[in-house]
Write a structure and sequence with these properties.
- By secondary structure, the protein is α+β, with helices and mostly antiparallel strands.
- The protein is built from four helices and twelve strands, in the order ααβββαβββββββββα.
- The protein has a six-stranded antiparallel barrel with strand order 1-2-3-6-5-4. A six-stranded antiparallel barrel has the order 7-8-9-12-11-10.
- A hairpin with a 4-residue loop joins strand 11 and strand 12.
- The longest helix has 23 residues.
- The protein is globular and about 40 Å long.
């Protein structure tokens, strides 16, 4: 058995497979860097009228962002919120609430102007795999766009208790992340970050299937 192992190892080295595997790993790292650079301008910081950052959101078409319903509930007296995209913190855009489902935990904000940023694509439910790497993007503590990496720790319907409907992740989730996207390695949205369990290191995200259903019901009319 040992001889077989050493023969196989020698074959891999001589054939260049070891080098190719290393290159593939480097390409994977570069893919994340490129993905995050592209996604940066399509993630929104949601800001209350008192200039206090309250959450995040992400672009689903040139004039709409989806966010968590509890983020959208902090509307100003005129029924609007302010959003900024990526590094454009000095270019605030007013947005108004056009759809909300508190039970689903989702809301859509309509921007007062069309933007040129690339909208996100939702991942199909069957493409989301247990243990796959993911990145949460958002505006924790009002610091600006921050990425945190983790994996899909549990799929919807596979755990007991009140969090069964959510995707679970160990990516770091903090106040201000709510409404931001949870992305797979292709840059697709697998979930919308909505909460974290205190003391457990577990973040919760509304799965893309539910986001798609909500968008279809409210923006496809």
């Amino acid at each position: 058995m040992k001889n077989t192992f050493f023969i196989l190892a020698a074959f891999l080295l001589l054939s260049g497979c070891g080098r190719l595997l290393w290159e593939a790993s480097c390409e994977s790292e570069n893919r994340w860097e490129k993905l995050l650079a592209q996604a940066h301008d399509s993630v929104a910081a949601v800001i209350a009228q008192n200039q206090k950052p309250i959450g995040s959101g992400f672009l689903i078409d040139p004039q709409h962002i989806v966010t968590a319903s509890h983020v959208a509930q902090t509307l100003g007296p005129d029924g609007t919120l302010t959003v900024t995209f990526g590094k454009n913190i000095n270019r605030p855009i007013q947005a108004r609430l056009v759809a909300e489902d508190a039970a689903a935990g989702l809301a859509v904000l309509e921007l007062e102007q069309v933007v040129s940023h690339q909208p996100f694509v939702l991942a199909a439910a069957e493409d989301i795999q247990l243990g796959e790497p993911v990145v949460a993007l958002g505006n924790p503590f009002g610091m600006g766009l921050v990425a945190s990496a983790g994996i899909v720790g549990a799929l919807p319907g596979t755990v007991q208790g009140g969090t069964s409907a959510y995707l679970h992740t160990d990516a770091a989730i903090h106040p201000g992340n709510s409404g931001g996207p949870l992305l797979d390695h292709c840059g697709r949205v697998v979930g919308l970050v909505t909460a974290h369990l205190r003391g457990g290191g577990i973040g919760l995200a509304i799965p893309s299937k539910e986001i798609a259903r909500f968008i279809d019901l409210n923006l496809s009319k």
